[in-house]
């Protein structure tokens, strides 16, 4: 049994029994059998399922947000926003997937030649707890529209969210077996990845999980898409609109208790604006009110687990011991299960955990640099390469900085975010492959060349 404590109260509210070997086999067999029918289902039927799913998501948003609140501590309003975003990705692929997957004519000496995009089969999705609905639907909507079937191995602390997704899709008319939930541990997951009936794996999660799954998938020659951690740079140039930059910085760093892979984590600031930016960020951190995620007045959620809070505290303490300055926060909230305050560390430098490691919680690391060239060098001085943003009034100059950033997504005067219309993914140790956009849709198809002499 896997116990899932409420992150705010610390009380165990649910215990999840893991699937046994017979249940696991039944779910894989059911998905395999369902693929034959779903892969040739008319577009109209697939579209109808996604549209009904979107309607159900919007209608059930408060209840689904309450599940997230109970399992991983998300603020109620943040949960509602997440569910509505899931509805939008369903609607986007309902509207656009058919055109994205249309045959592509290519002129050759043949009578006719083209590329046809065909589904792969059963895809295993290994998904994290921090956005327990969005991470699933951003994978699932394009995968289903492409004609694939899917099995979900969700994070161990959000089992009820996983089951809620399955119920919602069944209610939307998705045929039996097209989507299934696996309540399994890491050892069982390795067995599923190796199963010949699994054609591809899509994982969003930690470096450790990504490395293990990719190695296993590689041994069995399976397609793999990995979206892993990030330590995104947030570069504030000398001509930046500081009011806008501070507001975006605070939202990016402290929303979802800072537990977001694409959150801004390293704030790299030029000397002309450093003091003013830091003052603004400290003020914004001070406005964050920790409390019950169900309370509308709460603006800082608990972290998802106590062990995650303790690891963040270690990183902060070691960074301070190496010379970083705590301007606000900096220690776990007493008499809480997993509470950590909105924290700002100034004068972060190389050699500190706050410089080199991902801070997966509400801690902002400020790195002061003398010039733009150094800002770029510091931004790239990381093993991660998920996203980055640049803030400056001269948009062309800011865009030139993005061209030098080693990352999968670069934004100017906007925080990094995932959008159904745009490819999303990283480089370096942030993973490989893409989700969303046409590029993401084509990750989970066989692009077949057809040549008629």
TrEMBL record:
Gene3D superfamilies: Aldehyde Dehydrogenase, Chain A, domain 1, Aldehyde Dehydrogenase, Chain A, domain 2. Residues 6-450 form the Aldehyde dehydrogenase domain. Coiled coil: none annotated. Belongs to the aldehyde dehydrogenase family. Pfam families: Aldedh. The keyword Metal-binding does not apply. GO terms for molecular function: aldehyde dehydrogenase [NAD(P)+] activity; succinate-semialdehyde dehydrogenase (NAD+) activity. This is Succinate-semialdehyde dehydrogenase. The keyword NADP applies. Keywords: NADP, Oxidoreductase. InterPro entries: Ald_DH/histidinol_DH, Ald_DH_C, Ald_DH_CS_CYS, Ald_DH_N, Aldehyde_DH_dom, ALDH_GabD1-like, GABD/Sad-like.
